[in-house]
Amino acid sequence: MTLQVGDILLDRIVEMEIPFMTPADAFPDSPAGIIEEHRHWMEPTALCPESGMLIIAIQTWIIRTPQHLILVDTCIGCDKTNHYFESWHKRTDDSWYLKLLDKGINPAEVDFVFCTHLHGDHCGWNTRLVDGRWIPTFPNAKYIIARQEIDQAALDNAPAYQESVLPIIETGQVVAVDTDYALDDQVWLQPTPGHTPGHVAVHLASKGQRAVLCGDLIHSPLQCLYPHWKYWIDFDQKESIQTRKSFLEARCADNNLVLTAHFPSPSTGYVEARDGAFWFRFSN
Ligand SMILES: [Zn+2]
Fold first, then answer.
1. Does residue 284 carry a pLDDT above 80?
2. Ligand 1 centre and the CA of 31: distance in Å?
3. Which residues, 6 or more positions from 164, have their beta carbon under 8 angstroms from its beta carbon?
4. Which of 18, 93, 102, 199 is the residue whose CA sits 20 to 30 A from 241?
5. How far does the centroid of ligand 1 lie from the alpha carbon of residue 122, in Å?
6. Using one digit for the tens of pLDDT, what is the confidence trace for 117-168?
7. For residue 207, how far is its CA from the centre of ligand 1 (angstroms)?
8. How do the domains of the chain map onto residue ranges?
């Protein structure tokens, strides 16, 4: 899949696309049984008919601008500690890395790695375990991460920070930026706090065309209809609801392409208003 936004080329690497959690567990505020109203449009791509779980993708976006090769969010990775999900814990499946190479990407040629935030499914491949040491997967890249996000992660000191962030701070590759940082006039950040304190969206613009990578400010097309549902692990639930609502309103108004982190494939589309609610119209 290659998308184009002006002269920016977009591609992705899906590490996994799986039934993940039931809507009731993912969205604790959702009324019991409400999923019955939505099965007809969600199954089988966004809701697994067998398990009743939401289907989510875990993926990295590849951005090629005329100047830079950029990756946004680096999935779960191998050998990482994860206390939440057993299937994410100490993975040995390195197909993400092989797909990267298959796409002709030499890790040494990646200029920038952006992390929308520092949960374990967004920074895992920042590093690899080689001979018992965490080394940067991208030896020549600068890792662009919001300062606020790094500060919170350092405070929490979770395995994702120890294994996927600290080693690249130590090699001097992390650039701690403001949440409205601009790389240039084609790639810049927007603060979208709530899911985590320093969560950012990544905006792209070229030749009058626009797109935005929304990270984890929203998790399922179902949540477009109910932006006031908090996601189970949102850090500041009130703030995440505000961020989600204003993001959906803005995309409805500007009709910019949205590249999601977790919506099922193709994971991209547009926000529209229909019957008094937001809907996500997937693009092909
Ligand atoms: Zn995530």
1. no
2. 23
3. 74, 77, 80, 118, 120, 123, 124, 126, 127, 134
4. 18
5. 6
6. 999 999 999 999 999 999 999 999 999 999 999 999 999 999 999 999 999 9
7. 30
8. 3-282
